[in-house]
Amino acid sequence: MHITSYFAKDLFRGKTVFITGGSSGINLGIARNFAALGANLSIVGRSQEKLAAATAELKAIGAHVVAHSADVRDYPALEKALQETNTALGPVHTLICGAAGNFPCPAADLSPNGFKSVIDIDLLGSFHACRAGFAQLRETQGNIIFISAGMAFMPYAFQAHVGAAKAGIDNLMRNLALEWGPFGIRCNSIVPGPIEGTEGVRRLVPEGSGDLLRKAIPLGRFGTPDDIGQLSVFLASPLASYITGTVIVADGGQNLPGSGAWTQLIATEIAKASR
Ligand code: NAP
Ligand code: COA
């Protein structure tokens, strides 16, 4: 696969990038962009099959890759993955907290365990990765990128669990930027808009309504995994050496008219499903 890059080809040569949820979708797109600039990749996910496919793809770009089948809710498993990463590839320079779970569900129907599952994967999982990665990031004076979502700052119907989790992530990010800045560690969040071809869009955009939603986006299109990959390499690069504690929105302006168009569509779908 060809990746257009505007950065020096060896920008991350010898550097280790650890990505939770790196086996598919946006996070795999991020991994590809780092691999194209010489980085070594360590990816975490639950499905062995997805990890194997992603590993093959990243190796074909030329990266050294290690893959760990682990659940981000399991702190010892993440600690082990980070230790093995250090041994195999060297200490982590960039940590991407990208693993997440999502499904649309009216709050009145959402079980406490459904709410907890998303909080545990997104928020607790992000803290686990940061906590277990701290010593290595201190050693490299590295950086952390959290993959947030628009629900963190704007309510979307049937996304109470996701909004709470992602808002928590952005606040965790700012807190760590404050506490870990003195160690030379930068922390930032990226808010992707709807990204073409991903599981998130498959779950949240009712079939056949993509065009309507695209029209509601000022730039007139959904994003691509490379849009988020390019932003990630910028944030991890020396070009961003004074940027920390920020939430960067890359959504084609989707948040500007609000969540109304999406809410209307998803409300219709949920009503159909419960008939
Ligand atoms: P995706 O392909 O399903 O990515 C999620 C990844 O996380 C998968 O690799 C998944 O692999 C892994 N994962 C899920 N639960 C896990 C767990 N408990 N432990 C370890 N790994 C776990 O979905 P995506 O749409 O590309 O989303 C990627 C990120 O972008 C997420 O943080 C999402 O919230 C964010 N985002 C997406 C969009 C969008 O339009 N797609 C918009 C805004 C934000 P396994 O299932 O094999 O574990
Ligand atoms: N609607 C309502 N509740 C749901 C649901 C849905 N579509 N899917 C799961 N839940 C509830 C379950 O009923 C369960 O609650 P209960 O015990 O009270 O019945 C709870 O959530 C946990 O479900 P389970 O399937 O055991 O969770 P898991 O830990 O195996 O999986 C999910 C986590 C549910 C988030 C799953 O969708 C997942 O693995 N997602 C990862 C990929 C993804 O979401 N990608 C998009 C990222 S934007």
From TrEMBL:
CDD domains: TER_DECR_SDR_a
Alphabetical UniProt keywords: NADP, Oxidoreductase
SUPFAM superfamilies: NAD(P)-binding Rossmann-fold domains (SSF51735)
InterPro entries given in the database record: DECR2-like, NAD(P)-bd_dom_sf, SDR_fam
Pfam families, alphabetized: adh_short_C2 (PF13561)
GO annotation, biological process: fatty acid catabolic process
GO molecular function, one term: 2,4-dienoyl-CoA reductase (NADPH) activity
Family: Belongs to the short-chain dehydrogenases/reductases (SDR) family.
Name assigned to this protein: Short-chain dehydrogenase/reductase SDR
Protein source organism: Candidatus Competibacter denitrificans Run_A_D11
Taxonomic placement: Bacteria, Pseudomonadati, Pseudomonadota, Gammaproteobacteria, Candidatus Competibacteraceae
